[in-house]
Amino acid sequence: MKLVIATANQGKVKEFSAALAHLGLELLTATEVGVKDFPEETGANYKENAAIKALHVAQLSGLPSLADDSGLEVDALNGAPGLYSARYGNLNSDSERTAFLLSNIENIETSKRGAKFVCSLVLVNPDGLSKSFWGEAKGTLLRAASGSDGFGYDPIFYSFDLDKTFSEASKDEKRKVSHRGHALNEFEAWFKTEEAKTFFSSHP
Ligand code: ITT
Known about the structure:
By secondary structure, this protein is an alpha/beta fold. The protein is built from six helices and seven strands. It has a seven-stranded mixed beta sheet. Helix 4 (171-177) packs across helix 5 (179-191). It is globular and about 55 Å long. Inosine 5'-triphosphate (ITT) binds next to strand 3.
């Protein structure tokens, strides 16, 4: 059974691949199935955006496709950047967006720097049938980056579960507690059901 990982973000590709490797699926990236461009994320929420990405890749590849839409919700910013985490400040790199976020909360005291990562994971088959999963991870934002692994806002996100930043954690450690890891756990539990067998059965 084939499954396309429907994302242009290489950090996500690595996390999906590691988490799904043991399920016996043949994992393909969007690039490997010839999808280079993704549609604009015009959804009103994470789930709608994830569905837009997954359906786009499923229709172009003719294969079941799994996408995530995720974001960082900062308490002191009333949940921003949230849905707009990838385009925060209209900046082009992870390091610029992280620096911009830190500057926006520089006057926020340590006890009020809470934040959570959220992830909506949506599986779509080429007929449009879909299934969705959810995960969250709570933490607090440091005043400077720490660690070199991961991607996005990982260097400033101090995980309460790990007592270190996601960038200081190994991939396995991050997967056990992260928003994406929790959503992928939900996916894995569902994958073992009869419903999942039916979902995948119409495709090679
Ligand atoms: P695709 O749409 O192609 O999947 P993207 O990076 O644009 O890639 P999103 O629209 O879901 O993905 O944006 C989510 C952003 O939130 C992402 O670019 C990161 O900045 C941030 N983010 C999400 N998950 C993260 C994680 O595990 N660690 C750090 N930052 C993360």
